[in-house]
Amino acid sequence: MTPRPLLAVERVATHFPVKRGGWLRRRVETLKAVDGVSFAILPGETFGIVGESGSGKSTLARTILRVYRPTAGRIRFDGLDITELDETALGPVRRNMQMVFQDTKSSLNPRLRVEQILDEPLVTHGLPRGRRRVVELLEMVGLGDSHVERYPHQLSGGQRQRIGIARVLALNPRLIVADEPVSALDVSIQAQILNLLKSLQSRLGLTIVLIAHDIGVVGYFCQRVAVMYLGRMVEAGPGRHVTRSPSHPYTQALISAIPKAEPGVRRSRILLTGEIPSPINPPTGCPFHTRCPVKLGAICERERPPRYRTVDGGWAACHALNDRPVVAEAQEE
Amino acid sequence: MLSTPISTASEPLLDVRGLKTWIPTRRGEVRAVDGIDLRVHAGEVIGLVGESGCGKTLAAYSVLGLLPPPARVIAGEIRFRGDDLCRRSAEERRRLRGSAMAMIFQEPLSALNPVFPIGSQVGDILRRHSTLSARQVKVRVLELLDHVGIASPGHVARAYPFQLSGGMRQRVLIAMAISCSPQLLIADEPTTALDATVQAQILDLLQRLVEQAGIAMILISHDLAVVAEMCRRVYVMYAGRIVEHSEVAAVFARPRHPYTSALLRCMPALKQDDSPLETIEGVVPALTEPEPGCRFRPRCRYAVTLCSDQDPAATELGGGRLAACHRATELGLPGTPTAVGADA
Ligand SMILES: Nc1ncnc2c1ncn2[C@@H]1O[C@H](COP(=O)(O)OP(=O)(O)OP(=O)(O)O)[C@@H](O)[C@H]1O
Ligand SMILES: Nc1ncnc2c1ncn2[C@@H]1O[C@H](COP(=O)(O)OP(=O)(O)OP(=O)(O)O)[C@@H](O)[C@H]1O
Ligand code: SF4
Ligand SMILES: [Mg+2]
Ligand SMILES: [Mg+2]
Questions:
Q1: Burial grade of B330 (CB within 10 A; 0-12, 13-18, 19 or more)
Q2: CA distance A224 to chain B (A)
């Protein structure tokens, strides 16, 4: 029997109403930021979500953590259905699922010293406090007590991100969702933070969802990876497989687009035309059909592709893979 | 393809020597660019890489004469077609920009004026630097937009910057930069703000344009992989200095400066296994009062006593290779596992 997932997301959609048009013909339209996403994460797993800007990664993260209430679908955390819980009922759940942000400048209060920043969550959740605990947390993220007195602006970007991680660790959460934790940092500092997250993950048995637009980062860090396009997942599977031998035409294009750092090698890229369509009027059928280099025809424009099996529990939602077994039918909500 | 020696006999198009660009501040002079040498030959694409804040943009602004005060060039020569630009008047340099040299800026949105339509902004450059009639300008604007791969030039010419996506804006900026057929183009992080699939489109476009028109290009980036794909030679910058210069393939296979080596090995994309990434501990030093010795020393795992005492000069390593490290000839530094066929 497979163990119970720590997080199970079923056909989740998060739509936003947006106002469009001038003052005469104002109308409200629906922006489908996340549109029918399903996945499950086992305890101790590292799960990566990649996708280009606007594909819905951050919205999905906030929905998982119930910052947003999904428009449709169900979210279960350790078996408990949290889709409809109100703030009071969410309290104890919140402690166990925490978020690390990209922008450490605005996510850390500039008027508080490091000590106060780390003390705050302990107070909120009524946990044991004190200088020793603060120093212990700092040591976990590779900083020392010399940083206790500092304000965020007296720290480098990498150090601020370490504080952001320490603040999350203060609560001993079971799930950490890290939304682009390294994309604002220099490569040399990125490596420090990724190594830190990885060692914490194995030492503390954390479950981590890592969101990034850099497929190299996600492929290196995560056991399983899912690829998002226009609010939907188009492929998922073992990290190495998805990033080395992708099955979905979009993943293939995404990976071929990344410079491979092999000097003198002119690769043949799959050049996509145009850019991601608007999530306000997303294409019907397969969301990728407007840019897809292998589009089959009417079926891609009309029918949502089901999930076809790839390898090791992986799948890709593309009609061109229809010689393979179906894992799940297309998800229309 | 990469086996020709770096040194080209002809005189370089751009020859920068000992350039220092400093910025006076209340806390002292920020030595943003602190004595760099850099050469570009006609029609050649070179890379300038380094972490945030190492002085890449200010070096580019120095060449173009676009330094925002109080930043100013305090020493060095910038020879363009043999002529030292530092001796030219502001007016002469303005005329040179847009006609002989052009730049694609790091922030595409702020490089465009929000209140004018795209067509008039592209047309402005043509009017300023050519003798075309109003009608000819209009025709040329549409040609240029078409040339940079914009599908409906007429529509885009009438649009305002905010109505365009990031990729489209970058195409417009490229159209503006090449509008007067420059000999030298400086592209400052032209794709950093873009998505991977759009970045691929823009890099392809740049490559096609410079090849077709024989434009020399300095591609500024913090991404070594982008440089590997586009450039034959690369300058690696650290804290205001050039620490290594070589053919790209050689740098990847056998870096000669510990900073370059570490930079190559901390990139997750190049990783073949799950072992921890190489890191560069510590942070880039403040550029106000550099400590004596090598600027990379506090972060360097190969540092010896000499490194704290003496600032290493750039050492010629044969075949045009340079590295500013006391131990450049003795260390066998690891490069990337993927680089093949390169010979240091
Ligand atoms: N609160 C909101 N109200 C309306 N639209 C929103 C809201 N939040 C996000 N969106 C829209 O939803 C879509 C998905 O946005 P989201 O921030 O989730 O993307 P992302 O994948 O995280 O992108 P990035 O890589 O740029 O961070 C975008 O089109 C965005 O403009
Ligand atoms: N007006 C200023 N006053 C003080 N310091 C400045 C000023 N402008 C730039 N600097 C400093 O000069 C250094 C070089 O800046 P520059 O913009 O050239 O870096 P860069 O290599 O282009 O970085 P990035 O990759 O982030 O664009 C930086 O350390 C920066 O902080
Ligand atoms: S379903 Fe059709 S349009 Fe979508 S990725 Fe597959 S082939 Fe392309
Ligand atoms: Mg986001
Ligand atoms: Mg810059």
A1: exposed
A2: 14
